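Collaborator request, handled under Task 6.
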Amino acid sequence: MTERALLLHRRLASLGVDAVLFNTSEVVPSTNLRYLSGFCGSDASLLITRTERLLFTDGRYKTQAKEQVTGFRIRVVRNKPAALAGALKSSGVKRLGIESPRISYEFVTRLARRVPGVEIVPLKERFLEEFRICKADWERERIKRAAEIASEACREVVEAGLEGRRECDVAADIEAGFRVKGAERVAFETIVASGVRSALPHGTATARRIERNDPVIIDFGCRYEGYCSDETVTCVVGTAASEFVNIHSAVYDAHMKALDAAREGMKARDLDRVARESIEKAGFGKYFMHGLGHGVGMEIHEPPHVSPRGRGVLKVGMVFTIEPGVYIEGIGGVRLESLVYLGTDGAEVLCQMPKDLIAAD
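Structure tokens returned to the collaborator:
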């Protein structure tokens, strides 16, 4: 973690500030605070000045901070705004950059009252993007393990059969499997959408019972040692209607073409175009309602954004999803999502569930 903090330390001048402040709380957590320091407690502030790197937390986290944090001086305090104000004054900070998307207005206001001579400078969300967008080998391994756990949990539930089960019970069993297999928690609320509800891209699991010949979309992911996974499969209980088979075939072809096409130096929007044109040629273009994929790491949605409006190019070390989908109201939907790591030879699939139309009798 020290190396990451040093990189930011050296960038203070280019950011036009004397210091940068991160704050994490139960209400507004900061992923970047954990990324820079290793600390995963629910209440802390991180201050990086031109001469110091400090982590402020309270007595509840004294031992945890000592175990997790390297490269920062740890200060256990009762009043964070007061302690931060003292540090800012002693360091002669005149311009303080804040991680504006992840720090509350109330916290900043309380701090500003104590240091009226300090200018608060909101920094854009992407000012740490270049650090997090390409994963180190050890980060890749954590994401891969999260993906393996999630795939294993889903496979066990699907193989046990889905017919007659409530969507919410299927979701609960998958999430319980995450815990049993070593995950910290879910990465997001598990989606289980059956029958015509499978046409809802974000169909939250309900008490609806899965019926014979229903299509079922399951979108799931867990968090392992701070890193997320994300995968989607489409199942059928019994016999799929011919129209639904055609939809699945179109999405499957687009998914495989995108996997094969992903390469270093490719524009993110061009990869989206590969899948989108494939689905359009199959006659379902207007039913592909979202981007092809998104980055995954310490957050479930982060750069790169693989969509028609996605910016930038793909680089070795990026981890992102490839998830084309077709959703037709009154009929149902298909989404096939793989989590991939971009290596020098192309996309390496990190998850394990098949993307065929899975029989879930």
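The cover message to the collaborator said: "The longest strand covers residues 19-24. The chain has two domains: 2-132, 137-359. Please let us know whether this matches your experimental observations."
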